[in-house]
Fold this protein.
Amino acid sequence: MREVKSGSQFRKDLKQYKTDNAISEEDSLTTRICKGLQQVKLIEEGKLPSRTIEDLLDEL
């Protein structure tokens, strides 16, 4: 049988859940930004081919 929580405990758990997820989402965003900046550097150095928006859309 499932445990029934009080309203205040539920709100507390929900707040903690949101806090935990915000941290992981932020870390994920930071990682993606860093990878993007690394790719820009490689493009500028000529080590990675540059792509246009049309190229990206064609891949979809």
Observations:
- The chain has one domain: 7-59.
- The mean pLDDT is 79.
- Residues 7-59 form one domain.
